[in-house]
Structure formats: C-alpha cells, structure tokens
Amino acid sequence: MVAQAKARDRGEAKPALQRLDWVLAGFEALTQGGAEAVRVEPVARALGATKGSFYWHFKDLRALHQAMLEAWEGLAATEITAAVRASDLPAREQLFLLVDRVSRIPEAEAQGRALEPALRDWGRVDPLARAVLCRVDRKRLADLADFLACAGLMPDKAEEGAALFYGAMIGLAALRDTAGTPMRPALQAVAEGILGMRG
C-alpha cells in the first residue's frame, strides 16, 4: 500500500496490487472504523482499485477476513517468539529480550499499536476472529510458561507467571496508548518479580 501511494505521488503507473496490499488495507479499515468498515467497496476505494481486483485475490469478503487474521496470527503467535529463541541467550536473558520486543511499537504499515486492540474488539463480535484470538492467547501463554520454566520456575509457577506477565503486557500496552505510560520498564519489573517466584 505504501508503494502504491509513492507511485501515485510521483505520477507513475501504480504497481499491480498484491494480496498483501488488500490485507494491509483491511487492517487500516479495521483500525479506523472497526470490523464493519472492512467491506469490499471502501477498501477498494482506499486502494484506488476496483471490486474486480478484489475478487481476483479473494473469493469473498470472508476470505479477506481470514487472510487478515492469518497474517496477524503468524506475527502475533510465532515471529516474535521465534526471534527470541533464535537469539541463543540464556533463558533469563531471553525473557528480557522478549520484554524488549513486545514493548516496541509495531510497524505503522500494519497499523502499529492500534491493530491488536482492534482485533480484540473484532473478536468480541465475530466467531472467526474470536477463534484466532483464543489460539494466539493460548500460544502466547504456553510460550511464556516455557520461557519461565527454562528460567527455573516450577511448572505451576511458570503457568501462573505467564498469566501475570501476559495480563500485564496487555494492560501496559493499553496504558501506553491512553496515558503515555512507558511499557518497557514496567513490564521488565513484572518479569523480574515473576522470576522471583521460585518458592
């Protein structure tokens, strides 16, 4: 979508739209107007495209919804965790690297920090979105419990710590947006407290 806008600004012929352009435009519509805004005509208009272009890439609107949710699930449930594990740092340091990664503001092209709250709102009214959110939440909790177990916590404490960390992460992300609260220092303090739960 960014390439489309740059080409338009320079007066060049716009490159052919790809499936990802439609997904990113869907994210933009979702964050700006909620799930009801993710419709074929408005998204096509935002891209300067026709409905025919949409149907070249997607069977119907539900297929776009599915592609949006799959794209987010891949990023939200696997990419960050995989990058942390690939660091080969000691377990405790991996947890602090995870704090650093999840505290960063996501890329603006994918609607930055507005995307996950918009997806959570969508999940309240749409069974498909809710199912993806449930999978992502379960995966994140399992990964967090695994990080904590590797750092020395007993399994029950690791599960409890994962829930505390994840709840804090969601809450601190919201506070960063509404109150300007820096996320990283507070989440690091939560992580340090959880690592002290060895008893």
CATH domain class: Mainly Alpha
Strand content: under 5%
Radius of gyration: 19 Å
Number of strands: 0
> Kindly state the mean pLDDT as a whole number?
88
| SSE string | HHHHHHHHHH
Give the second-level CATH assignment, the architecture: Orthogonal Bundle
At the fold tier of CATH, the topology name is Tetracycline Repressor, domain 2
Distance between the termini: 51 Å
Describe what you observe in this structure.
Helix 2 packs across helix 7 and helix 6 (91-103) runs antiparallel to helix 8. The chain has a single domain, classed as Tetracycline Repressor, domain 2, CATH 1.10.357. By secondary structure, the chain is mainly alpha-helical. 75% of the residues lie in helices and 0% in strands. The protein contains 10 helices and no strands.
Could you give the topology of this structure?
Blueprint: H1 2-9, H2 19-33, H3 40-47, H4 51-57, H5 61-85, H6 91-103, H7 115-125, H8 127-150, H9 155-179, H10 183-195
